[in-house]
Amino acid sequence: GHTRAMLDSSPEVCVVAIDQDPEAEARAVALKEIYGERFRFYTMNFADIARVEERSFDGILFDFGLSSFQLDEGERGFSFRFDAPLDMRMNNREGITASEFLETASEADLIRAIRDYGEERSWRKVIAAILGARGKGILGRTKSFAELIESVIPKRAGFKERIHPATRTFQGVRILINRELESIETGLQEGFRRLKVNGVMVAISFHSLEDRIVKRFFR
Prior knowledge:
Number of strands: 4
Radius of gyration: 19 Å
Structural class: mainly alpha
Mean pLDDT: 92
Low-confidence stretches: none
Oligomer: single chain
Strand content: 5-15%
Shape: elongated
């Protein structure tokens, strides 16, 4: 959507797009057919922006987090709306799945994912449940993992939760296995080095952890 809007704004605009999801490459082909040489696509993490051939930019736009495509494709394992293998990798050609992480991670890494990245208040109960569920198949699928979390997070009397009890834990695990925060820090630094004088950098963030990194960097 952003790419189309920028390319449609002027026939002089060129866009270099970066996405680590292999499935984004197919969508890029359709854009290439419409916009030709004004559009280039790289299948990589935006933290690797130093590898692109183009050396300087008038503007750089970062759009953090998941895409609607990833959330709507149940088999990718990002959402507990679907019962699917618990994968969560943005680049599903490399790295460990969320299920593998939950089955093997140290307690320190689980704390980092669920308390620090997920900002889950009941993190101790969630971690204890994960450790107790190892080897039973519960951590292998989105639905059973979400139900496990829901079973240990206390419901507050007379208070209706705005989000599902598993939302924060899913977020934290996803952030950790995809190294999302590290990628943001690196991407901002490398992108800024390639920004022309008087160029513009824009970042779209979706939660406080991303937002904090951007604000500190911009400051």
